Amino acid sequence: MSGDFSLLLNLASLKEAALNLLFPRWCLGCGREGDYICLSCLERLPRLTATCLTHLDQPLSIDGIYAPFRFEGTIRHAIHELKYRHLRALSGTLAALMYEYLAENGLPGEVLVPVPLHGRRLRQRGYNQSALLAAGLSRLCGLPLEGGCLVRRRMAPAQAESASLNERKANVAGAFGCRNRRLEGKKVLLIDDVATSGATLNACATALKEAGAAAVRGLTLPRDI
To answer: What backbone torsions phi and psi does residue 94 show, to the nearest 5 degrees?
Structure first.
């Protein structure tokens, strides 16, 4: 059995080496070959030191929004590459950064739920970047991934295109719902790529709590503050 395991490890290492040879990784911060964010640029990422809720008026459905970084520089570039330039391989690197933050801060949660895309946008893009991050984080932290309960029922403009807080709130009001009550009584970690006003995460939390979730906390990579 140990020989078979060693063989599998060797094959995996060879596969990774071959992929790196054919598709080398370049640091999004400095352009150095090796990884998508090199150690030097990683140390310079704009970290957040405080946890906050949202800029929305009370009452809130979300129980907190957590993020390790500010939405600028290399992290902003990375989110753009993942979301709009189809660099799906980057999701593993970004999920590892989320896992590091999760492990250090011990956020309470029993299940990971990605913020869903509307079906039309999912077909246009071909993937949900939040689901990729949630899947990578699930593999690292061991929390189960629930991607079939929360759904987006209504198409709306991208939040980044909305000029005001009121527009962002209106965009997502009633846009989400739950297909079932599988998350009833659960403490949910809601995963998204970036938090701006918090309107999307709060709208998702409303739908999840209406379906019985005990608590909903948002976890993103950067926060636009």
So the answer is: -70, -35
